[in-house]
């Protein structure tokens, strides 16, 4: 499934993209609020993303994982995903991570908005959610610019470099107003 926005194209990640994904996940700036930690080898990255890639062929698919491509240059600039709940809840959870050289140009917000819109229009979800470390100010801004509301704080649930960090829960419901 391919998604598109004004400046970006989101194409599903395949095994051909493993080196780009490994390079992205290996950057300390990208890992700062990630619970996976920097992969020790490309094999670790392969195992981390295997469930998402193998889910492509499943009947009741729950995982979507895209690479983010700039339309103007064709460059790989990051990855993003949507994980669906059991069908009856009609929930989806988004995530994204971009190369630091691309930060600050609105690309993450454009990505989040595109996946949220697909969540409602294509997947017919009732609610789209995201979790974010309370110290991840950039990502909090992205979620709020995407129309999400902070619904709660979950204390000390994120294992990040040997410490338990707090997490904000953000979400948008299908009939919430958005200004984009
Ligand atoms: C979070 C991340 C995706 C943001 O990407 P991005 O393309 O720079 O995001 P955008 O440009 O769409 O928006 C960033 C916003 O944060 C703001 N911002 C930047 N640095 C900030 C800071 N230190 N404190 C608060 N806000 C900050 C920007 O000004 C911008 O808001 P604005 O449009 O109102 O000016 C990127 O930093 C990243 O990949 N981080 C590592 C992975 C990660 O944390 N993923 C999210 C996990 S929940």
Quick synopsis:
With 180 residues, this protein is an alpha+beta fold. It is 27% helix and 34% strand.
Task: List the defining traits of the structure above.
180 residues, alpha+beta, Aminopeptidase, eight-stranded mixed beta sheet, 5 helices, 8 strands, 27% helix, binds coenzyme A
Q: Please list the strands of the largest sheet in the order they lie side by side.
A: 1-2-3-4-5-6-8-7
Q: What is the helix content? A: 25-40%
Q: Catalogue the unreliable spans.
A: none
**How many individual helices?**
5
CATH class of one domain: Alpha Beta
Give me the strand/helix succession.
EEHHHEEEHEHEE
Ligand set: coenzyme A
So, the CATH homologous superfamily of one domain? Gcn5-related N-acetyltransferase (GNAT)
Label the overall shape: globular
How many beta-strand elements? 8
Percent strand equals 25-35%
CATH topology-level name of one domain? Aminopeptidase
**Rg of Cα set:** 16 Å
**What do the pLDDT scores average to?**
97
Q: Can you summarize the main beta sheet?
A: 8 strands, mixed
- The CATH architecture assignment of one domain turns out to be 3-Layer(aba) Sandwich
